[in-house]
Specification:
With 666 residues, the chain is mainly α. The chain has helices spanning 28-46, 61-76, 81-105, 119-133, 136-151, 155-185, 187-202, 205-216, 220-245, 248-256, 261-272, 274-294, 303-312, 316-349, 358-378, 380-383, 390-409, 411-435, 438-453, 455-471, 474-504, 506-521, 524-535, 539-563, 567-575, 580-591, 593-613, 621-631, 636-665. The longest helix has 34 residues, at 316-349.
Amino acid sequence: MTVVMEKPEKTGAAEEPAPVKPVRRVSRSMVIAAILVVWLVLFAVLRGKQTLTLAAADLTDLHRWFNDVNDSIGANRNSNPLFLYFFNEIRLVIDNVVTFVQELISQPTGDRPVPQIGWLGVVGIVGFGSWAVGNWRVALLAVAGFTFLGLQGLWQESMDTLALTVSAVFVALLFAIPLGVWAGLSDRFNQIVTPFLDLMQTMPTFVYLAPLTLFFQIGPASATIATLIYAAPPTIRITAHGIRSVPHTTVEAADSLGATRRQSLTKVLLPMSKRTVVMGVNQTIMAALAMVTIAALIDAPGLGKTVLQALQSLDVGTAFNAGLAIVVLAIVLDRVTTAASTRAESARRSKNRFLAWRRPLLGAGAVVTAVLIYLSHTYLWAAEFPGEGGTGSAIRSGADNVTTWAQDNLSGLTNAFRDAITNGLLNPFQSLLTDSPWWLVGAALIGIGVVLGGLRAGITTAVCVGLLVATGVWSDSMTTLASTAVATVLVMLLGICFGVWMGRSALADRLLRPTLDAAQVMPPFVYLVPFLALFGATRFTAIVAAVVYAAPVAMKIIADGVRNVPATTVEAATSAGCNTWQIITKVQLPMARSALTLATNQGLIYVLSMVVVGGLVGAGALGYDVVAGFSQQQLYGKGLAAGLAIVLLGVMFDRITQAAARRTSA
């Protein structure tokens, strides 16, 4: 049988393929929402179980082991070769440097009741040096600032702080600048050193103190070593950036003229990156000043000790006076080093006819400064700052009066604000973290890390969670995590509001940015004082101080991100009929996602460091554990474990948010 196949009739048009149904992708926010829902459901069922709670006086085996190590080191410090010929020698060298600078400007020496250079000589040196590296305006600011320190009745304390800062910066720059140059010249070394610099800049200031006292004992030497370690990374990183930013064509031109590697470095790379290197020095000085004030916890002399004692006794007036002195010192050092980085360029642009007389005038200024140094070395009236510090007494009295008025008249408002944040955000979230089983919290954190940052961030989070459990301070870590998270949310709300305003308005940026820059200069200690007056010694004080401390950096990053959105895109949205709200929410913020993620990263790091410092004013948790470890010998091991927990939290936050920023910008 033959089968006849009929050809299909041509219709003149090709058959259309069946439509493909689009695959709906699950967004990251939906996955995170699902993780949170599962967490809340299991929390309701398992609340209060396997929380790893540890009482304030209780110790784990790890804490006892740390105590035993500390006792063993103390007993064998002068017999163990490692300490006898290495750590003790380092401490001795640093101690000699600090002692030399202190005897020079702050402490009596030998039979002299005053230092070698008194207040008049120090003011002369500061004024002349500021003029030499900057300009006459900066010199006037420096002279006025240092004179004000004396009028506050805090001259010796200020000079002790300056001595520690100068000593730490001097030693830090001895190795930071060469390492920065090496990192700028060598890609391999830069790749090796970058993770260490990231870790060092991620760790809050508190963390450096406990382990260093283990090796170098409590005292100015340990404080200086902690300060130089904390302050060195900015110079290393910025110097490397400056070297790498020199145009390759310039370097190639020098090579073609027969310049050796050393000549290329000294005649081309370093001179062309000088401004960037000085900016790194500026950041190192600011970091050193912040660390020196915190180092009062390990018996560092100076303004930090005055603030610490005042905070512990809730003496707001004294704390405010000393905190103001720290701010003045920070502003002077910042302005002088900033002027030094821009002086050459400003001189080239300026048409001031007195510039031709600059060198002779500097020579005359050097002679006047030498005379002032001689007078302050020879005569008591030029060595001891005159007066009884009446300005400081007025400031203390005024701060106490303002505090009393605020507590009497604003307590209703401040208490309502505190209770709203505490009961509405902090307590529920803290309960979720501290009352959930540890493994449930760990699983949720790992899941969020994977969703936001990818597999590598999830692995890092898992390692950090495991080590947090091992430290024995899991519950305190979760309390600190809750405060950090709530403060970061508030930081981002402020950052978005003011950052968008600054990014869209050049006038707002000009008005707000100088204030934000000044706020970033102030050490963390200073932020606690006004909020201690408003809210008392509570954990909320630490949270508000952390918000104010971290908000400036978030605002500036978000403002830059919004400003970098192409103007053509904004114009296109405007022509399409979008209003201002739609442009912000549908165009500018989505296109500035990487800036938002970076702001979250920096906000978290800043908040964590400040929340921990808040342990001094009732914040409790890890900050209290660290402080208690310094003051109570039996709790040293627990304090050291708390410091390790702070590092782990910082690493976990940093890796997740950095990975999220990379994925957002990809």
